[in-house]
Design brief:
2 copies of one chain form a homodimer.
Chain A lengths: L1 E3 L9 E6 L12 E16 L7 H9 L4 E11 L7 H16 L6 E8 L7 H12 L6 H7 L8 E9 L2 E10 L12 E6 L5 H12 L6 E2 L9 E6 L13 H23 L7 E9 L2 H13 L1 H8 L6 H8 L11 E6 L2 E7 L2 E2 L4 H8 L3 E7 L5 E8 L3 H8 L4
Parallel strand pairs in A: 4-5, 8-10, 9-16, 11-15
Antiparallel strand pairs in A: 1-6, 2-3, 3-4, 3-10, 6-7, 7-8, 11-16, 12-13, 12-15, 13-14
Helix pairs in contact in A: 1-2, 2-3, 5-6, 7-9
Chain lengths: 404, 404
């Protein structure tokens, strides 16, 4: 397995495009993305657990019942959520894409992201669909990744190459953050493509097993979006024997998927709204995986710790505090805490009590752009990681007046 | 029942004082508070559910096992938490106060608030204890309220007068916020005093019944402190027949307690770190009380909504979103939302979908300093309120570098 360049077009047979169609007022920002597979693909998705669900999710879920898809259409600027005609609009959007591509509208994955509760007018989508389709190309992944951005400051793409059944397979993806990020049993907008051959059932199994440890372990602001979705299409063009059961090929597939999703997780967390730093909390020594995950996520979610990291302040008491209210059954008297970064590592707490450390050294370490928060519970062998970002003035600025 | 002036000295027989002793570096801020009852009092307290508990809580819990107390000693500037010698230090602090007051150290409630994980040196407390005690007076409640402040911008006091057993009783209190405020089955530092006669058992029952609907329904930042505590002393000097069971007197006591604690809740939430606005989310039409509470608290805790309120942005989609991920079983299609303030009321969502409203009017309403977020679930008769504040640049500023 190795990382390669590219995104959703890294795998064979996938084309993409992203254009400005007019949903947003800002003409300099693309707002409509399309991904297309030359051949029908196995497909699977996981969705937000928010009871208030974007209408596109309901439609996509229906379209993926047969485990097949061939395209993704996604707009930014409007979430098509909490609108009376949302379902109808999402169906219509699939139809516009399906008809222009010459495929069954039921083989289209549809998604929307942006403001909640404002009717989505499809006339800009209808007017520009021909242009969107005619511009599809193997080099269009970057345009598509830009078109799904909301408050993201940069596009998020990643790709990997791996071997399954003796064939070289590729897998790529794109993602968008960057606020309302606190997935729970589902995640933000992520579209993955692969040329590996795999059955819909095994694809679904691989995806749902993966997100529990990756996209569900990110938090930007504790708000779980109404429109979170991770969808994957596998078109089989790598020519490997179809992965239809557990075994070495499935393991290789899962390993590639994990490498890809962890990279996208770090991209999403590091580009959280207003973020200046990526935070990664690594918990070890837990009695079981659930405890490790609960502790890691609680630390990553603490507003107080996030603000301290912004200020490069080694306020480890806030780490202990967040562990204490996490709900996990831990012994505070056994906890060790350290901070790390490219500039080094500093131990700040041992056995639940402070240890002397150089404030100057700590400041240097916490001034880097990627910070590790290392927690050892000293109570077992299980481990987990969670990703987040610091809390900054700009988070407040971005969210104080998002709609206008 | 009526509100009266004053705080912890409003009830007969209570004296207080607050001085600068030297725990803080800033000499202009009082850091040591004392409350004293002329006679032994029934006493009760509730504590944080954080597994990482401040040492003073452990000591206070032990001291209140017999349901009696006569004094409160509390310092700010250092939480005496996550220190190897914490328990010993908290016991020693009770002793210093008890000896100076001529009472059993076990009748002292001890508390600390401030930075976690830094050893608490008691020499400033020992050196100034005589001064603290000699300055006790019926006018010292304000000084005590100032001495427990951390990042609070103003002292928080309230008092009420009520009748029990034909006698006029008084009850007063002081509180401190203003970050790490997200109590769960307990609360931040609140000290209440009353001259009503009531048994320790009934006092405990009244207090624990009250906090579930008041202090546990506040959130500033989602962080549950290690040192949260609400303690109450009742010295009986009003001369009413001791309240020893349920009945009209107990009801009057509870009503007075509720009025007092709701006022302090609003004070704490409105003075949350960096806050410019008090937010009150009132949920009605819920199938049961728990649902109403869950929904109200989820809305109040949403970072995205809090930032929108700072910007006076009527982004009601974030209210729906927070209800959707609250974990409460609600029907999104039945939810109505409105915003209100002294400037009026604007309905923004009906039956889960947006309704047209004047942005100008909404801006005017949301520019006030106290904002109501009114949610009707249209699914029953239960209701609940939660209190919080907006998320501002200053929250980040205050918490980006708290220790230095």
């Amino acid at each position: 397995m190795k990382y390669i360049n590219g995104g959703v077009c890294a795998a064979r047979g996938f084309k993409a495009n992203g254009i400005y169609c007019g949903i947003r007022r800002n003409r300099s920002k693309r707002d409509l993305a399309l991904i297309f597979s030359e051949t029908p693909a196995s497909a699977a998705a996981v969705y937000t657990t928010n009871l208030v669900k974007g209408a596109p999710l309901t439609v996509t879920k229906r379209h993926l019942e047969n485990g097949k898809a061939q395209a993704v259409i996604c707009n930014s600027g409007n979430a098509n959520t909490c609108n009376a005609d949302g379902i109808e609009i999402a169906e219509k959007m699939s139809e516009l894409a399906g008809n222009a591509l010459g495929i069954d509208p039921c083989d289209v994955i549809v998604a929307s992201t942006g403001v909640i509760g404002q009717p989505l007018d499809l006339s800009p989508v209808a007017a520009k669909m021909a242009e969107l389709v005619s511009g599809l190309s193997g080099e269009g992944g970057g345009f598509a990744a830009e078109a799904i951005m909301t408050t993201d400051t940069r596009r998020k793409e990643a790709a990997v190459e791996f071997t399954a059944g003796g064939k070289v397979c590729r897998m790529g993806g794109m993602a968008k953050g960057s606020g309302m990020i606190h997935p729970n049993m589902a995640t933000m907008l992520v579209f993955l493509t692969t040329d590996a051959a795999i059955t819909p059932e095994m694809l679904r199994s691989a995806l749902s097993g993966d997100v529990a440890d990756t996209f569900n372990m990110i938090s930007v602001d504790g708000d779980t979006s109404t429109n979170d979705m991770v969808a994957v299409m596998a078109n089989g063009m790598a020519g490997n024997a179809e992965i239809a059961s557990k075994g070495p090929d499935f393991d290789a597939f899962r390993e590639a998927l994990r490498s890809l999703t962890v990279k996208l997780c770090r991209e999403i967390a590091g580009d959280g709204e207003g973020a200046t730093k990526l935070l990664e909390c690594s918990v070890s020594g837990a009695p079981d995986k659930e405890t490790a995950k609960t502790v890691a996520k609680s630390v990553i979610c603490s507003s107080l710790l996030k603000a301290a990291m912004f200020g490069a302040d080694a306020n480890w008491g806030r780490v202990l505090c967040a562990i204490g209210y996490s709900g996990a059954a831990v012994d505070p008297g056994k906890i060790d805490v350290a901070f790390s970064s490219a500039a080094g590592r500093v131990d700040v707490c041992a056995g639940g009590a402070g240890v002397p450390f150089s404030e100057e050294e700590a400041k240097k370490i916490l001034s880097e752009s990627e910070i590790g928060i290392l927690v050892d519970l000293n109570s077992g062998d299980a481990a987990a990681s969670a990703w987040g970002c610091d809390l900054t003035y700009d988070y407040v600025k971005i969210n104080g007046d998002y709609r206008t």
